[in-house]
Design a protein that fits this description.
The chain has 348 residues and is of the alpha+beta class. The protein is built from eight helices and 18 strands. GO terms for molecular function: aminopeptidase activity; metal ion binding.
Length: 348
Amino acid sequence: VPGVSGYERAVGALAYRELEPYVDRVEFDDFGNVISLREASVEGGPRVMLAGHMDEIGLIVKHVDEKGFAYFQPVGGVSPRSLFSQPVKIHTGRGVINGLVNCKPPDTPEEEKKMPELRDFFIDVGVGSREEAERLGVKVGDQVTFERPFATLGDGSLVASRAIDDRVGVCVVIETMKQLAGEAIEANVYGVPVVQEEVGCRGAQVAAYRIAPDMAIAVDVTSALDIPGVPEREHVTRIGAGPAIKIMDQVYFLGLISNPRIRELLVSTAEEEGIPYQMEILGRGSTDAATIHLTREGVPSGVISIPTRYIHSYELISVKDVVNAVKLLTATIRRIPKDLSLKPRSIQ
């Protein structure tokens, strides 16, 4: 399902359908977020927000030249390294058409050593003129998704695809809401697939302002750099070693230092339930918790991360880590009491 940032409607519709039978209510807000609620079985329970973002990185057509080549604006963290001979789908008003991203070959040895800039790339749609491209439906504003088909690796427990960042987080949130259906819980749990994370965590901020949660947990991917050429101290996480509990992250002016009480709750839950986990400090990158925790008077926030190789490229994860993330998040919600307090212990 395509869902470049700002174009998440189809993903949202799918998330809505998946959630509706298992929650007390679900709706779209004006920004495009899907906000579902599983009500507490007691009066006055805390509001807990679970967020995973529906959008993916991609491209937007910004110009079609006289020969029918389409130029684009990247949406989110698109690297030139991932674009050479990259198949894409252009989602036009007349249907989906195939394209191939590339740039001109180097003319000199010096050019060959340099990485082309994003503006040097174009999409070849197999036509010879602007008019032919227009007849196919290509126009400025069309979203473009990368063609990276779903595949299994190894014994089948590893899967690769585009948009694992962060459809896997949406999956964990939805599956957690399903697990909680019919249970007596003391928290009002909001399962929120959000929009526009890849362009500044915008949807989560809007949703958090509306919900005014007492605490929040975002579910997103994190780097698993357990690959050749990276020293062990820089792996961040290892694929297949369990979901990661974030300590901190940072990207430019956004970032999160996880609330210590939430982090302790996640760790103690994992240990008591026998769920494998790992701790995460991510030096570059962040999640929806970066804007959620700054909403209103501040929202105590934490993150459960899915270790992922090759983020923003052909992404690879372990299904075991996803299953254990659902177990961890569900068990954590069950432990949240009606009288939840996340203030530092010394001033309670």
